[in-house]
Known about the structure:
The chain is globular. Helices cover about 70% and strands about 0% of the residues. It has one domain: MetI-like fold, CATH 1.10.3720.10.
Amino acid sequence: MSAEPATLSTPAPPVTDDAPARIRLALHPGNRFVGLVLPIVALLCWEGAVRAGWIAANLLPPPSELAATLRELVTGDALPAHIAVSVVRVLAGFAMGAVLGIVLGTAVALNRWTAALLDPTFQALRAIPSLAWVPLLLLWLGIDEAPKVVLIAIGAFFPVYVAAQAGIRNVDRKLVEVGVMAGLRRGAIIRRILVPAMLPHLFTGLRTGLSVAWMFLVAAELIAATRGLGYLLSDGRETGRADIVIVAILILAVLGKLSDSVLRALESRSLAWRDSALP
Length: 279
């Protein structure tokens, strides 16, 4: 009885699931400047509509006239001073509101008695519009820099407070249990488990708080201000200069985008450990 010769079978290549890679490739535009397409198209359509007479130039000046106004403000040294004052106010107010939001949001999330005492009041105050604070701040703090910075801090506080609180409360309970089983004390659990796990929520709150700070800036600079982009808006309205108003609005948009990009870069660096399927 003859034995059949043994045959060597080559192992099949391992099956890999490259779905996350395909998702990244599908969603990544491949060019960081693709976001400029829409603004450029909008500016060209805007210019063409005004030149064709479809839009009144005194109500909506064309981009070419806005560029001339911007050049006039820059050469007159007025615009850099307004921008510098507004940036300092936003940074000061945002820093104050963000620090308080992180501290109080963390305290409310970690202690049920603190939550019962503070959270209902903060949730009620969160619904108050920005302009409603102006008369009260004028009565309390006068017309100097203090009411402006405090108003911006109020705007930045609530998004950071909510995000810090939600970030801690959404931490997976199993992670905390593993830390307890490993013998970590309360401080070590907060530092090594809760803080890293809450960072994604916290950065979302910080970015939202920063954008709200820029929005509250305009209301803040209506408080007897003589400098700043909010003052520039008010001055353009009172003098009938729509070009100045639009230039101030566009500068606010650019500054808001730049500051958000800085926070987003800091978020990417701080959360580089995440293995996210989406970019």
